[in-house]
Write a structure and sequence with these properties.
homodimer, 17 helices, Butyryl-CoA Dehydrogenase, subunit A, domain 2, 580 residues, seven-stranded mixed sheet, alpha+beta, Butyryl-Coa Dehydrogenase, subunit A, domain 1
Chain lengths: 580, 580
């Protein structure tokens, strides 16, 4: 049976060497008291909590699932207690501001925590997963009275929030939302409507639940510009039960320990967050935060899959390998890790997983810089990059998370298909991440149409410059020269295809929508190339240490695959399929 | 809720126009009495049976699963009755020889039946799925006494067979099998050992079960050359219970209505089939038959996925499309089938599914020719091609079946993730086909190392000549010229990479194993190109009929994607990743 091993060595490499985060922290007043030792302690504690408390509940939670009875939801055995342990250890407070009772630590450390939560128990991690986004949203948009009532409870984890967006007829298209709210005359509203696919809409972790609900005011314009954001607490400040009830839960392919609820709001008491008809913008604080976390789900799944596959491949003996390492004794059959088809899968798992970790943590670190850095130029630039990278992180990472789970399952052969081996659950759990918080197709349109075409490629250009800078530094090192050349080459290919799409979209507005999916993958690949070129350069001088030697070898594998794949995806865009 | 519609129009196109099967049947004594009308009747009856009897049991069978209690297995409600209906309708007799009480119809019609069984209920179809292979094997290798006892019962479906190969330590590597058999002195043996992953090892469809078991005789050499094939009936000819028992069933990702059994043979009475130590060759009659059927599972899943996705996409309204067909009225939101990202998925589903049907049925037809054609040159050539195409059909189709199920699931967004919509089950069920009867990696090695390198590319060359012949015919038609050029081009690319691999393997025996996976995909793509070029040429003159217009449009889509993908996979092979 597989036992998760927190990838502490690689996490340390990313935080300390790749990001050089401690240097940046010095320039951020908020993080003055933070140093590498403290950061490492937090990461190790997060590893311990995830591994010891959540890991053991993953399979049992999946088999037991959630149960719905007359408006109440029971989560799997052990889930509520694990949440109590989570709040008692102070995990929800991690990145909340000190003035709100938080620890004021960086989102970078939250990213490490989240990766490990998702590797160990995706279903459980769904409940607290959006709490920090709700905290940010409430902090930015709630009136003082509401902040006084709930902000503290959100920081400590005493309450959990939900995001109530989807309705049966309104999924990707939030403009079709029908839920409505009418002013009560005091500062409150009455909100009526039905929502579906609400994670934790009902649960047994917390007494109270804060529903963040998109709905329409009576005079609101049609479409997304007529949505307002409301807070609907399950329990009202006076202790009464509000008129919001769970009417059922979904039976799903995966994340079965996560309660996906249908919710009925029956003139429920609500408070407006932010301005009327500006609800979508306010909600996007939560949505963007969620999208980054979902990218980390892809990483978490891939890391779990990588561990399961490589553990199995080192122990399973089948057939003789054509070649063996010198120190490996010949048997009647050899470990399958020495068979080429398995080697390729293991290398793919390693290169993708470490690439995701590097980029995912980088974006979390950029998020910290964008919010807290003392230099406003740095803040603005970091924010621009986070905005551009977010849809790629969400879509590309989750596609990888699922595909790599399938690839790892294949390493186990028929044994991968049965429940006793954890990988079939990883496959099922990972599949949701390509769908929720905006399908991956929505992310691709967001990246290309809104974020690249939207500013004629300006933000993209600044990011490509950053990537090229790395290529330049890399090129000075003769052992990394070929990585540098490859990175520079794919950077200019990305710039070229972006220019082409900017100009073709002017006369053919449908063209970018046909290109968007492959464009996002190319952008992902080029970003991975940036990550791997830098990793290789940093590992280069220490290649007598196995960890760094393996980094270099993995970089070489990545760059072998890179150009064929970039060229392929460019050719698909240019092959010109159009609607009939 | 999705309702399966048998793809009768396309099946007719393949049998009648693409294969021109009725012309070939005239040259086959066995099929003299067969004409198109009779073939169509059989296909329509198969459609009715699959749709009306099996379809309704698919979801319920998945949710209920199989249950094991004290050596007995209960299959889901309705499964045994559906099997009675199947045998009463004479389906098992379809392609059995008339002299054995069969109908003497072609395997081509079995392929159509199988496709529809798999689209409707993969789990159920597992039980009778290998019966025809066992019939062939028994017919070829069983002594007269055993044939007299069991052949008739296998033809009528009164008994069902199993394939007992896998043991805990012996999966891909059958050479590691430990089960052993000792002669009794009469014509029988005592067989002892443990087998796992045995489909229908125990069930409640038939009184008796015929286990086909690989085991070793006392003096057998080590490895695969020391395996002999035995028949172990559950109930002995004298009516006594044989000492073979089911010790448990697996809990699996999918095909939950199919009982996957662990079996214990405790000095069970056994009869030798074929010669001592020649068991693997005898078993390969069943294995090869099973591999073709598994390819048809990929097709069946893809067809189901295509139908689910296109039905949903035509009804689901979300967001305005940039462009709409002229006749489509503008709404507040448009059917998602008009959004480019969805269009691409639907076209991919259609082009792959129809391509698989054409090729899968072609191989079934070649199988008929190889066994029954009056001209021995044709028989030999057909057999050569079947042998070469089998691993591709198994691996490439099942990979497509799974990937297309995932793609179809994506079309449904979050709704694809919940049990109420059938697609999440299709995704789970389809995944097994990449694993069993030799993982797809084993198929890739079989294709390249055994079947291409094994005869220095001779068989492949004859197949490529057939493909090029189609390109030549196609090139005479100005509207199909570009398809012809593309087909000819990828044919020569396949020939080139084959030559390269033949020559590189001479000095680097590991090289083909690194190339095998992508090589199989290239071989698949080139075969699809052959199928689509011919389809386009046949559709060309009738393009005022919507069915043929859609064929042409789908061919155009396929050829747009073809060259980028072939070039990509060639580049991956040539990028040269080797083991560290």
């Amino acid at each position: 049976m597989w036992q998760y091993q927190a990838p502490l060595r690689d996490i340390r490499f990313v935080i300390e060497e790749w990001l050089k985060a401690p240097e940046d922290w010095k320039a951020i007043p908020e993080f003055q008291s933070l140093d590498l030792d403290l950061a490492n302690q937090v990461v190790m504690e997060a590893a311990r909590f995830s591994t010891e408390v959540l890991g053991p509940l993953n399979s049992s939670g999946d088999r037991q699932g959630c149960h719905f009875d007359n408006g109440k939801v029971s989560t799997p055995d052990g889930f509520p207690a694990a949440y109590s342990a989570y709040t008692e250890a102070g995990w929800p407070t991690l990145a909340c501001a000190k003035e709100d009772g938080g620890q004021g630590l960086p989102m970078l450390l939250v990213a490490a925590l989240m990766e490990m939560l998702y590797s160990n128990n995706h279903a459980w991690a769904m409940y607290p997963g959006i709490a920090h986004g709700a905290y940010r949203c409430l902090r930015a948009h709630a009136p003082q009275k509401i902040r006084d009532l709930y902000l503290q409870a959100l920081v400590t984890g005493e309450v959990l929030p939900t995001m109530c967006l989807t309705e049966p007829q309104a999924g990707s298209d939030l403009g079709l939302i029908n839920s409505r709210a009418e002013a009560e005359g005091d500062d409150s509203y009455r909100l009526t409507g039905n929502k579906i696919f609400i994670t934790g809409g009902e649960q047994d972790f917390t007494e109270n639940i804060l529903h963040m609900v998109l709905a329409r005011l009576p005079d609101a314009p049609k479409g997304p510009g007529g949505l307002s954001l409301f807070l609907v607490p399950k329990i009202l400040p006076n202790g009464n039960r509000n008129h919001v009830f769970c009417t059922g839960i979904e039976h799903k392919l995966g994340i079965r320990g996560s309660a996906t609820c249908s919710m009925n709001f029956d003139a429920a008491k609500a408070w407006l967050l932010g301005e009327p008809n500006q609800g979508l913008a306010a909600m996007f604080i939560m949505i963007n935060s969620a999208r980054l976390h979902i990218g980390l789900q892809g990483l978490g799944h891939a890391e779990a899959a990588r561990q399961i596959a490589s553990g199995y491949a080192s122990e399973r003996l089948q057939m003789r390998a054509v070649k063996l390492p010198q120190q490996q004794p010949r048997g009647a059959a050899d470990p399958i890790e020495y068979h080429p088809a398995i080697q390729q899968k293991l290398m793919q798992l390693k290169s993708s997983t470490e690439g995701m970790r590097t980029l995912g943590y980088w974006v979390a670190h950029l998020d910290d810089i964008s919010k807290h850095h003392s230099d406003s130029t740095q803040r603005v630039q970091a924010e621009t990059w986070v905005r551009l990278l977010t849809p790629m992180i969400k879509a590309y990472f989750t596609e990888l998370g699922f595909n790599l789970s399938s690839s790892a399952l294949q390493v186990l052969g028929g044994h991968g298909y049965i429940q006793d081996n954890a990988i079939e659950q990883t496959l099922r759990d990972s599949r949701i991440a390509m769908l929720y918080e905006g399908t991956n197709e929505i992310q691709a349109n967001d990246l290309l149409v809104r974020k690249v075409l939207g500013d004629d490629g300006a933000a993209l250009q600044s990011l490509i410059l950053r990537y090229q800078e790395e290529a330049n530094v890399c090129s000075a090192d003769s052992d990394c020269k070929h990585f540098s050349v490859a990175l520079a080459r794919v950077c200019s290919q990305l710039a070229d295809i972006s220019d082409e799409l900017i100009s073709s979209s002017a006369h053919d507005p449908e063209a970018p929508y046909f290109a968007a999916g492959e464009y996002l993958r190319i952008f992902g690949l080029v970003s991975f190339a940036f990550a791997w070129a830098r990793s290789a350069r940093l590992a280069r001088d220490k290649s007598d240490v196995p960890f760094y030697a393996s980094k270099l070898e993995t970089a070489a594998y990545f760059f072998d695959q890179l150009r064929p794949e970039v060229n392929y995806r460019l050719a698909l865009i240019r092959s010109g399929f159009r609607s009939p």
